[in-house]
Amino acid sequence: MAFTMHSHSGQFCPGHAKDELEVIVKHAIQIGYKTIGLTEHMPRYELSDLYPEELDDPQASLAALTPRHAAYLAEALRLREKYSEDIDILIGFESEWIRSSDLPRILSLASDPVIDYVLGSVHHTAGIPIDFDAAFYAAAVKACGGTEEGLYEVYYDDQLEMLQGLRPKVVGHFDLIRLLSEDPDRLLRGWGAGVVWEKVVRNLHFVKEYGGLLECNTAALRKGLAEPYPAREIAQEWLRIGGRFTFSDDSHGISQVATNYTRGLDYLESLGVTELWTLKRSTHGEANTEEQSGSQLVEVSVSIQEFRESLKSAST
């Protein structure tokens, strides 16, 4: 039963993604997905949060974000009903943890009964994007004391704030901070004074304690990294404490659906992982359900072998 818990469309993520949401859902069905988690980015609320491509008319760009989110939820509901016999559509959104003062707004979005789950992610550190380009990344390093070690420390502190505030069912690209690093493959255990690794372990334990899932995100591979998110030493620590993985392509259009899935599955098997976890919307009273943001979800185990067999054709 192949799936993704993290996806975007050009319709609701213009500038970063391509293709209409319905086209992406139809393609996912065609290649064998049985579940797709729709996780368009939540609105941002400050002019300072806009990306360069949104700055031609900043006020208009900012004003469009909240109505776009409402339009996304309406379209996701329509697609869920239309394709219910072919695929399970989960409706979520990806958080933007830019400042802790945004927490009430994020919780308000999460409380919408349409929302099945929140994908908890951090794309900013010290209010600066850390995965957009080298210039922004350098600015984030400078804002965090001028060293990458300092940036990593602040990133994992920001991530803990996000985790504590949202307790997201799925934690997105746990170590996204390494994407634009000068040494993305560095081992964190023993780096510098060891503070970064301590914060990594602290955050993993917190996710484990509240029952969150870490995604194995194959977007890292298409962006040139040697391993998916999270990197091997983090994945090993997550497994050591009994953590569970879900799986995501973090696609931004049909060309990226299931991209590098074979490599991602091989990576997990090399770690000794034999099963992945996804979610299913349940009927009232079904066993092993949990309430989150107004919907009841069942955690579903999928063997990696079954996952592989269900993929019909893709750039895997």
Automatic annotation (TrEMBL):
Which InterPro entries does the entry mention? Histidinol_P_phosphatase_HisJ (IPR010140), PHP_dom (IPR004013), Pol/histidinol_Pase-like (IPR016195)
UniProt xrefs under Pfam families? PHP
Q: Return the NCBIfam families for the record.
A: hisJ_fam
Homology family = Belongs to the PHP hydrolase family. HisK subfamily.
What species was this sequence derived from? Coniochaeta pulveracea
Q: Which CDD domains match?
A: PHP_HisPPase_Hisj_like (cd12110)
Q: Which Gene3D superfamilies match?
A: Metal-dependent hydrolases
> What residue stretches are annotated with the PHP domain?
5-219
Tree of life domain: Eukaryota
One Gene Ontology MF term: histidinol-phosphatase activity
Q: Which reaction does it catalyse?
A: L-histidinol phosphate + H2O = L-histidinol + phosphate
GO cellular component terms, semicolon-separated: cytoplasm
Q: What is its EC number?
A: 3.1.3.15
Pathways per UniProt = Amino-acid biosynthesis; L-histidine biosynthesis; L-histidine from 5-phospho-alpha-D-ribose 1-diphosphate: step 8/9
Q: Which EC class is this protein assigned?
A: hydrolase
Q: Name one GO biological process term.
A: L-histidine biosynthetic process
- Key words of the record: Amino-acid biosynthesis, Histidine biosynthesis, Hydrolase
The name this protein carries in UniProt is: Histidinol-phosphatase
